[in-house]
Design goal:
Distance between the termini of chain B: 16 Å
CATH superfamily of the largest domain in chain A: EAL domain
Number of strands of chain A: 26
Oligomer: heterodimer
Shape of chain A: elongated
CATH topology of the largest domain in chain A: TIM Barrel
Largest sheet of chain A: 8 strands, mixed, barrel
Radius of gyration of chain A: 49 Å
Order of helices and strands of chain B: HHHH
Largest interface: A-B, 38 and 33 residues
CATH class of the largest domain in chain A: Alpha Beta
Helix content of chain A: 40-55%
Strand order of the largest sheet of chain A: 18-19-21-22-23-24-25-26
Strand content of chain A: 15-25%
Radius of gyration of chain B: 12 Å
Structural class of chain A: alpha+beta
């Protein structure tokens, strides 16, 4: 081969994109790339030895490596990394190969170098990161493991010692399944299989793992296998194990607390159902099981008046009394208890209820007071009302719902009719709010006639609900629902507003004074804002207060007589008149007629309708009219359906009447037509 | 939704939030699972209720009576766990909302 000249070599080296330095005892040549990288010119290079460009401490070592050994021929080629200091003082990591070459019979060193500073720095950063990570893993409360496809442990973080008691490398190479509870192995195996089939995903799995002392620990583990794990040189799936043993213990104690009531010492519903299932199994359809669900009447008020602690003592006392029945008892929640009794015949159910009533007949002591308590109860019987424990409890609860409507002390047995009624009530309640928005409520008006002149003197406002499923509903069907949901007030204002506005319009149109009678429920009547609300609508419609009649039932009036007296007095002071509705149907004493000043008494249609054929009904009507005349109260007969009714009432001296004989309740437009026709005919 | 029901749901959510601060989310889940299971006897919809995040439970489909029943059960059980004072506080809050 033809020997190269220095010049021809330099021409070739100039093109190479790497550091190329030719040197002997001094630098002879450095290519353009070397000059650009280091900031030195070729002239500056030529004044120095190559090793003069490294840290002083390393100079001798580098000189020996890249020149002395090559020059002497001990080595033909060396390689390594040197830290080159640039003209700006930066350190460049140069990975090099230095080779002994002969040019024109003289030996030189030729250094070829690549700048690996970036890689070195990255590696340094990575090393620091790994160090930090190792520290984190050591102090972490989780154990990090790498598990291969066959379940062998390839890595464990130092925290394994603290969490499970094993030394860090003690389990390396062993199968993780050897440490997992036999009942959990299959689940973990499945998870491992799944993760290796779907790299890049994460699974959470719970299992028990044996610690160094042999105890089982509850581990919650997130398993992760990075995408491209093989290329990343990761040996398997990463298990991030968290010791949940304490958490599990707490959860178990909490679960215990959900089964038993600490306050009364009674078991809760879950136990009750278990017991009921056992009883059902025991009877084998040869006897009956009575399920009784009990609710303490007015318990919320007791809590409110005496305080929650006293309420709790009372619940304890109730539980103690119930225990005397020697039947299975449970506290379902709050003031709801459940009783379970095996009975041979249905008559025994009545005996149990009798015992129950006896238990409550003795007063309870509350902070020195003696308080009589009452209850509501719903009952169902196996196998009549249901075959399963859940069904029987549910049906007893339905009966309880209805019993609450019937009043304190009511005990009601389940029947499909009761369920239908309860369901209807629930549907009505749930559709009540929307009904208002959908304008399903309408006010109807029934004319009231002065019997003497047969002229219309007023109207009774009657609320109707056009229910999409149940059709036209009268207030009796939904007032209790509206009262219980608090919706009664919005409904009451709606009636007040519509009725006053309508009668105002009729007064204008027919140039006559008509009154409007509006019914008020108990809750509305006892509400403190009643007068303000009435005043507001009287004001809005500029309506004469004496043309408004407030109708309340005897039952409403007698609920809180003292309060009623005060309310009625205030109402009458405003010039508003009072009528007692459904007279004679609820309250036997007439004493209230002395206490309350009333303007009208409405004789219920229950008496008016049959009076022509029933002498007892006739006597009551006669007496009521007579009473009204004696007390100077206007009598109004409801349910007048025939001319005979009217004639008889007129003869008895009844003042006013309403009923289908004159007109059924109707909407305002029809009422206007009715009035036009009537005025044309009767004047 | 009517106002009373909305108020009741807010009360329940606030109470659940407070309870979870004391006993933790997973323990609260245990309590809720038990109550929902008990209530499912009366309405199966309780059984299918999602409780992965107890504070995000959807109570809107239940009636006021059912929600009151739920709250009573919650108060009883949490009273067992956290003591009488906590129970009283929950009942006081409910009274205030009425």
């Amino acid at each position: 081969m033809k020997s190269l000249t220095k010049k021809s070599i330099f021409q070739i080296l100039e093109e190479i994109p790497a550091v190329v330095v030719l040197y002997g005892d001094k630098i002879i040549y450095a290519n353009l790339f070397a000059c650009k990288l280091t900031g030195y010119s070729l002239k500056e290079f030529r004044k120095k030895h190559l090793w003069e460009f490294v840290n002083q401490k390393k100079r001798e070592e580098i000189k020996q490596r890249i020149w002395d050994r090559i020059k002497s021929g001990i080595l033909d080629r060396v390689e390594g990394v040197l830290k080159f200091i640039t003209k700006e003082g930066r350190h460049i990591h140069l990975k090099y190969i230095a080779k002994r070459i002969k040019i024109e019979d003289e030996y030189f060193g030729l250094l070829l170098g690549v700048d690996i500073s970036k890689e070195v720095n990255q590696e340094k950063r990575l090393r620091n990161f790994i160090k930090k990570l190792e520290k984190l893993l050591e102090y972490s409360s989780d154990v990090i493991m790498v598990i291969d496809e066959n379940g062998f442990i390839k890595y464990e973080s130092p925290s394994v010692e603290r969490v499970l008691g094993y030394r860090q490398k003690e389990r390396i190479g062993k199968s993780i399944f050897g440490y997992i509870h036999p009942n959990d192995i299959e689940r973990v195996k499945k998870a491992v299989k799944k993760i290796f089939k779907n790299p890049g995903t994460t699974f959470t799995v719970e299992y028990r793992e044996r610690d160094k002392t042999g105890k089982w620990r509850f581990m919650e583990t997130v398993i992760y296998l990075p995408d491209g794990w093989k290329e990343l040189e990761i040996e398997g799936a990463i298990f991030n194990e968290r010791d949940n043993t304490k958490k599990k213990q707490i959860e178990r104690s909490i679960l215990e607390l959900t089964y038993h009531d600490q306050l009364t010492g009674l078991p809760r519903q879950s136990w009750f159902l278990k017991q009921l299932k056992y009883y059902i199994f025991q009877t084998k359809e040869q006897g009956y099981v009575l399920v009784l669900v009990l609710n303490i009447a007015d318990f919320e008020r007791i809590n409110f008046v005496y305080g929650i602690s006293t309420g709790d003592s009372l619940l304890r006392e109730i539980a103690n009394r119930l225990k005397r029945l020697n039947v299975s008892i449970s506290r379902l929640f709050g003031d709801n208890f459940a009783l379970l009794v095996l009975i041979k015949d249905l008559g025994q159910a009545d005996e149990i209820i009798l015992h129950l009533r006896k238990l409550f007949s003795k007063p309870f002591r509350l902070k020195g007071d003696e308080v009589k308590l009452s209850f509501y109860a719903g009952a169902s019987i196996y196998p009549i009302d249901g075959k399963s424990a859940e069904e029987l409890l549910r049906k007893a609860d339905i009966a309880l719902f209805k019993a609450k409507e019937l009043g304190e002390g009511s005990v009601l047995f389940y029947s499909s009719r009761v369920e239908k009624e309860v369901l209807e009530k629930k549907i009505l309640k749930s559709s009540l709010f929307n009904a208002f928005e959908k304008k399903q409520f309408k006010v109807y008006y029934q004319p009231i006639i002065e019997i003497e002149t047969e002229k219309v003197v007023g109207f009774e406002a009657l609320l109707r609900w056009m229910h999409p499923d149940f059709g036209l509903l009268c207030p009796e069907k939904f007032i209790s629902v509206a009262e219980n949901s608090g919706f009664i007030f919005s409904l009451g204002e709606f009636v007040l507003d519509s009725a006053i506005a309508s009668v105002k319009r009729l007064q204008k149109e027919f140039q006559r004074r008509f009154y409007i009678a509006i019914n008020f429920s108990l809750k509305q009547f006892l509400d403190e804002s009643l007068l303000d609300v009435i005043n507001n609508y009287l004001h809005i419609h500029s309506f004469n207060s004496s043309d408004l009649i407030l109708e309340i039932t005897e039952r409403t009036a007698m609920q809180e007589p003292e309060k009623t007296k005060q309310i009625l007095r205030k109402i009458r002071e405003k010039g508003i008149r009072i009528a007692i509705d459904d007279f004679g149907t609820a309250y036997s004493s007439l004493e209230y007629l002395i206490e309350f000043e009333v303007d009208k008494i409405k004789i219920d249609k229950k008496f008016v309708l049959p009076m022509l054929s029933n002498s007892k009904a006739m006597t009551i009507v006669k007496m009521t009219i007579g009473l009204c005349r004696a007390l100077d109260i206007v009598s109004v007969a409801e349910g007048v359906e025939t001319q005979e009714h009217l004639i008889k009432l007129k003869n008895l001296g009844c003042r006013e009447a309403q009923g289908y004989y004159f007109s059924p309740p109707m909407e305002l437009n029809s009422l206007i037509e009715f009035m036009k026709e009537r005025i044309q005919n009767n004047g | 939704m009517d106002k009373e029901k909305s108020r009741l749901i807010v009360l329940i959510k606030e109470s659940l939030n407070e309870i979870s601060m004391y006993i933790g989310t997973s323990a609260l889940k245990v309590v809720l699972e038990r109550i929902f299971f008990d209530l499912s006897v009366y309405n199966p919809a309780w059984e299918h209720i999602e409780i992965s995040d107890p504070e995000e439970v959807d109570f809107s489909k239940f009636s006021i009576e059912e929600l009151k029943k739920f709250y009573h059960m919650l108060v009883d059980i949490v009273g067992n766990i956290l003591g009488d004072e906590f129970k009283k506080e929950l009942l006081r809050k409910a009274k205030k909302e009425e």
